[in-house]
Amino acid sequence: MKRHIRLIAIITAVIAIAFLVGNIALFNMLPKPMRMEKPVKIDYGISDPQFLRTMGSILHHPITEGNQIDLLRDGEAIYAAMLEAVDGAKHSITFETYEFWGKKSAGKFADALADAARRGVEVHALLDFVGSVRADKDKFKRMEEAGVEVIRWRRPSWYQLSRFNHRTHRKLLVVDGRKAFIGGANIADNWLPDENNNAYRDNHFFVQGPVVANMQAAFMETWLDARGKKLGGDRYFPELTAKGDLRAQVVKSSPREGRHRMRVMFLYAIAAAQEQITAGTAYFFPDKGFLDALKEAADRGVKVRILMPGESINHGFLRHASINRWQPILEAGVEIYEYETDMYHSKLMSIDNQWASIGSVNLDNRSFRINDEANLNIYDENFARFIRELIEEDMVKARRYDLERWKQCPWYHRLYGQIVMIIGPHL
Predict the structure, then answer these.
(1) Cβ(369)–Cβ(338) under 8 Å?
(2) What is the CATH number of the domain that holds 194?
(3) Positive/negative CA dihedral, 335, 339, 345, 346
(4) Are 297 and 304 in contact, with CB atoms under 8 Å apart?
(5) Residue 334 and residue 40: Cα distance in Å, rounded?
(6) Are residues 106 and 181 in the same domain?
(7) DSSP letters along 148-180, please?
(8) For 24, which of 51, 128, 180, 343 is 20 to 30 Å away at the CA?
């Protein structure tokens, strides 16, 4: 009997190993696009009409006029505005997020979405499986029983190994096809303060105008992949009129597209910078080519500043691995600031007070290569200046990480970072 059990175990192990090797071989057989390894060279700036035309073409997304975008700062204000929109929904709600858990946050959203479905609103919730694994299963049951169409996207599977790593990291909410939300905040209790912890520092945005249709289309693309059907008609795509004067562009990316669109977007914007690049990111761990682009910008006299979490970061191993790569950009004059009070989770960039990008994308290879992401680019002087000033406000609570501090980094931190880079090549 024991021999039979051992034989079965051996056969199972052989099959599992063969399947794993086969998946790896198949992955390596798939065509992979070349990545831009050297900084982009262009001879015009952000304010030049050539930049607008180029970004509208290479990113394959239209730039629309007549939009209004309002800031929502930190979890309590973000969630209140989103829940108010859900409570006022008449026709449809489409909702996509990475993290979804917690009684105070996800619990309220589950109840609000369920209530909307009960009163006849078409509600579709696409929640990343890994990001929602901490959620009480009762939340999903309440929504589904009320009529919410819930998908826990990318559930890990032994026969689809990519699901362990490929996630939707987008944060999209569209109500009645007219009101939309995008930014850095997930739906989780980390964004709400309690007696033991400070809330994450984050920014989210309320969007109205014609660009909302493109945000809806970004959701619909993932919904098609997840459910195998499209949603359309006036309930989701009503006729939209101008609500403001901002030119805005939705940019979405997915590893299924294989184009590394977000990385290309930032590389072109960095190459067009002439005066300043000011960015805020929750995780800063890009590849060498991206770091070279920042270095090249600093070498030609552009003031480059990047704000990120310091020791308050929720994934410390990424910080140590990233620091190991900083010497060349610090020597070139890139200014790095580490937010000290709370976990800084926002994702913002402003260049030359002319162009800004907001949304879910961090400046790391996971966002560039592995996750489904969505950002909103704004081509407007006042808005770009506003985003720069928003980052600068948080820099007051940050400590600069200069070259001297880098040289004094403990050897064991460097070793830790090297190990992370070896075992996590996808980073």
Answers:
(1) no
(2) 3.30.870.10
(3) negative
(4) yes
(5) 18
(6) yes
(7) -EEEEET--BTTBGGGGT--B---EEEETTTEE
(8) 128
- How many Å apart are CA 118 and CA 173, to the nearest integer? 19
Query: Residue 22's Cα: distance from chain center in Å?
Result: 31
Domain that holds residue 135: 67-244
Question: What pLDDT is attached to residue 121?
Answer: 98
More confident residue, 17 or 152: 152
- pLDDT (tens digit per residue) in 211-222: 999 999 999 999
**Cα–Cα dist 166/255, whole Å:** 8
Distance, CA of 243 to CA of 257 (rounded, Å): 32
Six-digit token string for 342:
């709370």
Distances (CA, A) of 62 to 28, 87, 205, 360, 413: 34, 31, 20, 19, 45
pLDDT at 31 over 80: no
In this prediction, residue 324 carries a pLDDT of 87
The model's pTM is 0.90
Pair 291, 351 in one domain: yes
409 within a domain of the structure (yes/no): yes
Burial (0-12, 13-18, 19+ Cβ within 10 Å), 154: buried
| Beta bridge partners of residue 192, listed in sequence order | none
Buried b (16+ CB within 10 A) or exposed e, 99-125: bbbbeebbbbbbbbbbbbbeeebbbbb
Is the CB of residue 68 less than 8 Å from the CB of residue 209? Answer: yes
